[in-house]
Design a protein that fits this description.
Layout: H1 6-13, E1 18-23, E2 29-34, E3 37-39, E4 42-48, H2 52-59, E5 62-68, E6 75-86, H3 90-102, E7 116-130
Antiparallel strand pairs: 1-2, 1-5, 3-4, 4-7, 5-6, 6-7
Protein name: Putative F420-dependent enzyme
InterPro entries: F420-binding_dom_put (IPR019920), F420H2_bilvrd_red/Heme_oxyg (IPR052019), Pyridox_Oxase_N (IPR011576), Split_barrel_FMN-bd (IPR012349)
Domain Pyridoxamine 5'-phosphate oxidase N-terminal: 5-126
């Protein structure tokens, strides 16, 4: 497992939007914008069961996550790794992310018909640039 340095961890801890890339069954990439956070050296994000990210990761756990500092286009973190899906803490994590990104205590877009799922990414490779 690769290790995040302090600056990379700090950038990932800020409410900066990230893009996540998973692999479709045909091997082509699928990228979406997500909310992320760090938990130790792992990056976490949240989705719902049945969505493309969750379906792709069940078939192939390889994933990449990128964050670009909106104040400095040369300050970035890009992580490639392996994803694990966890249901147990998913509701708490989406609320934590809603607090970080929206400043609210509870995720306001929760739908009663969906099951949230947390994605925990173990970094295998980290590209980090501290900016200008």
């Amino acid at each position: 497992m690769a290790t995040l340095n302090e600056d990379a961890r700090n950038l990932l801890s800020r409410p900066v939007y990230a893009w996540v890339t998973t692999l479709r069954p045909d091997g082509s990439p699928h990228s979406t914008v997500v909310w992320v956070d760090v938990d130790g050296d792992e990056i976490i994000f949240n989705t719902a069961v049945g969505r493309a990210k969750e379906r792709h990761l069940r078939k192939d756990p390889r994933v990449s996550i990128g964050v670009l500092d909106p104040e400095d286009a040369y300050h970035l973190v890009s992580v490639s790794g392996t994803a694990r899906l966890e249901i147990d803490s998913a509701d708490a994590v989406i609320d934590r992310l809603a607090k970080k990104y929206l400043g609210v205590d509870s995720y306001p877009f929760r739908r009663p018909d969906e099951q949230r799922i947390m994605v925990r990414v173990e970094p295998r490779q980290i590209i980090h640039n501290t900016g200008r």
